[in-house]
Amino acid sequence: MSKPLVYALFIILVVGCGLLIGINNIPGEWYQSLAKPAFNPPNWIFGPVWTLLYVIIGFVGARSFLHHRHSPMMRLWVAQMIFNFAWSPLFFGLQEIALALIVILALLVSLALFLAVTYGRDRLSFLLFLPYLAWVAFASLLNLSIFLMN
């Protein structure tokens, strides 16, 4: 399989799954009724940010698959995807704020471990995942705040 095809497949798969999960777990009346911190961004920002991040995640996943397929780097990439895709159904679908908090913290840890492993092996993937780490850290703080306020 050609490298451009691998990149395209990873990006399409990650963005597609992210969109599918988002469409099936739309924040509704329950979410609107929750108390939220003052730093909660407007709802419209989440879609564009996550779409851009999913493109980056897919790109990095393809790099990991092509160059480090049987390494901790690839295993950590898969782990962070599992935690990432589990969060919305838990938070919005099942309305389990505490369980979603545990999952997003696991996502944060898996991202930190991915970055630690990636730093010396693939500097581009490391740099590309820094905004993702920052966004998930912010989302973790937001999840924690909503948990504490409700």
TrEMBL record:
This is Tryptophan-rich sensory protein. Keywords: Membrane, Transmembrane, Transmembrane helix. It comes from Pararhizobium capsulatum DSM 1112. The chain crosses the membrane at residues 5-24, 44-62, 74-92, 98-119, 126-149. The keyword Ribosomal protein does not apply. It is found in: Membrane. Gene3D superfamilies: TspO/MBR protein (1.20.1260.100). PROSITE patterns: PROKAR_LIPOPROTEIN. Pfam families: TspO_MBR. It comes from the Bacteria. Belongs to the TspO/BZRP family. It is a multi-pass membrane protein. Signal peptide: none annotated.
